[in-house]
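Risk mitigation, structural track. In case the binding assays with V47 fail to produce interpretable data, a predicted complex structure has been prepared as a fallback.
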Amino acid sequence: MTSLLDTVRIKIDAGARISDAEALALFACNDLLALGTLAAQANRRKNSDKVYFNVNRHINYTNLCVNRCTFCAFSKEVEDEGCYTLTLNDILAKAAEAQRAGATELHMVGGLHPALPFDFYLEMLASIKADNPGLHLKAFTAVEIDYFAQLTGQPVAHVILELKEAGLESLPGGGAEIFAPQVRNKICPEKISGERWLEVIETVHRCGLKTNATMLFGHLETPADRVDHLARLRQLQDLTGGFQAFIPLAFQPDNTRVPGATGVGGVDALKTLAISRIYLDNFQHIKAYWVMLGLKIAQVSLCFGVNDLDGTVVEEKIGHDAGADSPQQLDKEQLCALIRKAGKVPVERDTLYREIQEY
Ligand code: V47
Ligand code: SF4
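Fallback model:
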């Protein structure tokens, strides 16, 4: 009888797709090294030995949020100690600092602010772009886009086109969490549904902007919920081709309110990254976000099908507020060393995966 791993190997060799049932069976497989070898093989066919990183900076303009997702240690209410909203000048100073440090991208997301008008976000993009025309602006989750549509009473496509006109160039993949409603309703009951997230992202793709996709894992979800999440992403990617990278985000439990969740172990993290690579045959890039995974697991994942380590980041709040023990930032040399010591070739890219320099 052909074993599961043989079937998967044959499919990878033939460039064929694995089924949902096979992906679920892989989550039950304890032969981690065999699984990693298959994922590495699938990755090599697409990306050879290159591993991408970029020089970027995160800016979280506000942690005030009208939602109270139970997994989120970042968001605050107006009366809470530690709540903040950056002024336009603060944001411009951070952007200028990024530009001076050689960044090619700003990654900007925030909470759903109870009072800021939509014009604030348009002005933020336009004034950053005016000062720093070379910085790619990757900003706003689908959850924020939906919120802007509510704020303005305008259709999502209209909101996106206005943001695009102001300087928006792509979207990160946040807010996807886990699409399965029974878990989503427990961990983020006020957030838009999984269906709405996919609908907003489909509209973003149709408006001509690329996005990423994420999956928050290691809380209350089952392996079947993870496969359901991957299946919906693979389906949308077949339709639009607008996703660049898939990023599984390892849940950080400190200061959160998810009952019983203890965080993600190394085996689970590597398995999830490897299965994502194998299942998502229509995604070019699988990203190990070192902030949530830690540097060691992120590095080892380069032998488990991952081909992107994200960027220099510089100032990170979402994971660190929830106890992430990774550094705040890495420099180019540290990223190159991590990649090289895994036997891979470091390549600096821009946000749209155009190669800037091979090291
Ligand atoms: O949407 C919130 C997640 C996301 C926690 O697209 C948490 O390139 C773990 O999406 N533990 C924001 N995760 C971050 C994000 C991202 C990061 C890096 C690169 C890209 C990209 C996207 O962080 C949120 C949510 O899913 N998150 N709280 C937590 N306690
Ligand atoms: Fe708000 Fe986003 Fe945190 Fe949810 S995950 S509470 S939407 S900042």
